[in-house]
Amino acid sequence: MTATIDREQETLWDTVKFLAKQQDIDKAEAVLKATIEKSLQLLNLYTPIVSHLRFSIPAEQFLNELKHLDADIRKKISRDITEKTYEEILDYIKMISEMTEDPQVTNKKMLASILFKKAKQDARVRRKTPTQFPEVQIEIDEAVKEGEKPFYTTSEAGHKLGLSDQTIRRMCESGKFIGAYRSEGGHWRIPEENFITTREQDIKGNGILEHLDKKNQEEGDVDEFDL
Boundaries of each Helix-turn-helix domain copy (predicted)? Predict the structure, then answer.
């Protein structure tokens, strides 16, 4: 799965360069935006602000640097994250910002959006009452017993996507998740293939968010912004 993702990302970066050489700037910008959005999703750092930004297509050398940095970060995250990895992530976000009209403001807003997402996820976890946790644990245990293929419970999927359990259940009922089904206990099971990132990537991504949060506190608070 990782090799496939790497090839897809490489193809997207190369497509941006090809369209830029053909002077098809509008399509190049659209593909660049999609490439960045997917890249941040894979790092569990997705921010909706990207879809609202206007990008200028940089020189090929700059695109190559972005492409290689993107691949290098994903490679390191899949193995072992170090302090250097976090620095590269901050450099990556900064380079993305440099392709916009106001790099400094964009960089600040992207970091604010990423940290705001983490804060909302943490708040959802804190709001759970103690009586809810046993049911969640039972769902997880059932999912493990049902076979080798990894599945998500509605609680896990809700936390992953920043949605409520009720919303996830409605999505299951309407067929939004491929292969989702009810267990013998009546709980929904959602195949891992429905999501871009794996559990391991989510755990490491949350570690990245915590580190960015720490950096933000050290450098001063950044206010959330209106999209």
Answer: 151-195
